[in-house]
Amino acid sequence: MSDNKLIKAIKEKGQTMEAEMSFFDHLEALRWHLVRSAIAIVIFTCLAFYFYDFIFDTIIMGPSRPSFWTYRMLCELGAWLHRDGFCINKINIDLINTDMAGQFTLQINSGLLIGITAGFPYLLWELWRFIKPALHEKERKAASGFVLYATGLFILGVMFGYFIITPESINFLSNFTVSSKIQNLFTVDSYLSSVATLTLATGVVFELPILVYVLSSLGILTQKFMRETRRYAVVVILVIAAIVTPTPDMLTMTIVSIPLFILYEIGILVAGVVERRKLARENAAV
């Protein structure tokens, strides 16, 4: 009897050690995926340092100039609508540096932000490679376009944030004054933080359909629930648009909120597709 207990204990210990080794093997695999992603980000950051003059003068400082693409398009839109006030001829931005190492840290931070933004698609691909072996064949086929869709939505969000939200916000905030006795002098860190936050935050927000897909696959979110809460979603989207774009005019708020409404409706369609696939699998299993 004692021999059987001993053999059973040895087997249970062996199974426990095997599970622990499997867990640590997964951690080791994840570590290497993250290491490769970090290397990719470092490479893009180095490229950003190499082309820093173009990146800073053209990309980062672009929304602070009246010649920026968005401002020119607004001027043409105003001419097409025969309405004045669309053209922006001056943006009152005077950037200053108040720290001894301010401009040095500016170059490091902006280069790193460009590296993270450019390396984000590769990071998604490495995460997909880590998750893929744990999925069944049908799940792999269903999520085969994850990297492509997630990357496309992120890039679309970044472009929307950079060309629409950022210039509108910069134009409003740079000209907003509480009193004529207060002069607006912005630090370079504040300017970079505003551009990076508005751009990257919009890129993340545009991942909403991917989030809906994941939550629907887990059974947490349903198409019926999203339809029933549409009225509340409209209010939340308008609040987000008001926060992201501090401009007081309804036109800018509408321009920002429309893509969010579209993303929410796409999310409803995605949830419906996931539910139909689940139902089809359940019927096939019966």
Q: How many angstroms separate the termini? A: 44 Å
Shape: globular
Question: Structural class of the secondary elements?
Answer: mainly alpha
Total strand segments: 2
Total of helices: 11
What characterizes the major β-sheet?
A: 2 strands, parallel
What would you call the quaternary organization?
Answer: single chain
Helix content: over 70%
Tell me the Rg in angstroms: 25 Å
Range of strand content = under 5%
Give the SSE string. Answer: HHHEHHHEHHHHH
What this model shows, in words?
The chain is mainly α. The protein folds into two domains: 2-206, no CATH class; 207-286, no CATH class. It contains eleven helices and two strands, in the order H-H-H-E-H-H-H-E-H-H-H-H-H. The protein has helices spanning 2-50, 52-60, 69-81, 102-131, 137-142, 146-175, 188-205, 208-217, 223-228, 230-244, 250-285; strands spanning 95-96, 186-187. A two-stranded parallel ribbon has the order 1-2. Helix 4 (102-131) runs parallel beside helix 7. This is Sec-independent protein translocase protein TatC. It comes from Mucilaginibacter glaciei. GO terms for molecular function: proton motive force dependent protein transmembrane transporter activity. InterPro entries: TatC. Forms a complex with TatA.
